[in-house]
Amino acid sequence: MTLVSRFSILLLIFIHFSCQNPVVGKAGSTPPSHQLWNELLKAHVRPNGQVNYQGFILEKAKLDNYLKLLSENAPDRSKWSKNEQLAYWINVYNAFTVKLIVDYYPTKSIRDLGPRFKIPLIKDVWHYKFFKIAGVEMSLDEVEHSILRKEFEEPRIHFAINCASVSCPPLLNEAFVASKLENQLTRVATNFINDLSRNKISSQSVQLSSIFLWFKGDFTKKGTLIEFLNRYSSVKISANARITFLDYNWNLNE
Length: 254
Description:
The chain is mainly α. It folds into 2 domains: 29-179, no CATH class; 194-246, no CATH class. The protein has helices spanning 3-18, 35-44, 53-58, 60-72, 82-104, 114-117, 140-152, 181-193, 211-214, 216-219, 225-230, and strands at 131-133, 136-138, 200-201, 205-208, 242-245. The strands form 2 sheets. A 3-stranded mixed sheet has the order 3-4-5. A two-stranded antiparallel ribbon has the order 1-2. β1 and β2 form a beta hairpin. α5 (82-104) runs antiparallel to α7 (140-152).
């Protein structure tokens, strides 16, 4: 085997292992209380999801205390229930998204933050590793795609996680908790799908949020997209209804 061939094999092995997402967890941990996050959400998020980021800034110490609690108490996957883990990761995504805006406020859009980082090879704000869970550096992209979407296969997470933008599903003004998770996920799915500012639904035509285009595969694993919508829509949609998608407003949700 030539030196070049050996180098090529070693390079492929390095790329393979460097691209693997670390299994993030902590043996012996117990689910942390989400009370601090719940109090912050009640105080600074309106029922419609509008966020008072300046209020969060004033209580930054409290937010940081909650984030520290999350960072130090990653799930013990062998002991935590599925709902305990799912609620934890949804809160991780939402709380660290708020942290990102708080740290760089004011901004017109979360997408404007990417260039501020000035880190080579960072495609966008979601790939920026700015927090740690159990000592592992992580990004919002990893939480969403490598953990929430990959491990739980729960399409309603798309209505639970918030990307700090007008067209995103509203940030729920309460923490997600295992004991209420099923009810909370059903509620955010129902509210989002029937929200006329985000979806326009009639029996023969639906104009949908781009979320249903970007993540269509998540919504159609057990049937068609219309079948999924009809589980929550207040308007019964025809199986042959025309489907189009709306533009996405990335302006800050304040």
